[in-house]
Design goal:
This protein has 132 residues and is mainly beta. It has a single domain, classed as Jelly Rolls (Sandwich), CATH 2.60.120. The chain contains one helix and nine strands. The strands form three sheets. A four-stranded antiparallel sheet has the order 1-7-2-5. The protein has a three-stranded antiparallel sheet with strand order 4-3-6, with no helix packed on it. The longest helix has 6 residues. It is globular. The chain starts with 8 loop residues before the first strand and ends with a strand. About 5% of the residues have low confidence.
Length: 132
């Protein structure tokens, strides 16, 4: 089973969804922002079951990876993988957590610098964004 690297950081969670409340696109084959390099989605099933289907590319007719995630279990999806999910029962209830590599988080970060205050002591330093 694929594991999330230990240094990856939990960045967000989806709401808990069922067949009716989940976004329709999650059930269609897609490659979304959540599966960019360094991002591992983890799907947790609270009730019912979800089937994950992973494809080699956008046009593959058959999945190359199939994983059934039952109630009380979770499945980790590889980054940059075309995929979709199927809800296996009408009462299925699940959510998705995203774990991101530190270097991916830093790509969009605005660097901060320390600006000395009037007294030049540690307590008077101000933190400023970028070139402010």
């Amino acid at each position: 089973m694929l594991q999330i690297p230990q240094n990856h950081i939990h960045t967000r969670s989806t709401p808990f969804w069922n067949k009716k409340t989940a976004p329709a696109g999650i059930f269609e084959r897609h490659l979304d922002k959540g599966t960019r390099p360094g991002v591992y989605p983890r799907l947790s099933v609270m009730q019912g079951a979800v089937k994950y289907l992973g494809y080699a590319d956008e046009h593959s007719s058959e999945p190359e990876d199939i994983m059934v995630i039952n109630a009380g279990e979770f499945g980790v999806f590889p980054p940059q993988k075309w995929h979709n999910i199927e809800v296996m029962t009408d009462d299925t209830y699940f959510n998705i957590d995203f774990f991101v590599a530190p270097e991916v988080l830093m790509e969009g970060a605005n660097p901060r610098k320390v600006i000395p205050g009037e007294n030049n002591d540690e307590k008077s330093h101000l933190y400023r964004h970028g070139n402010e």
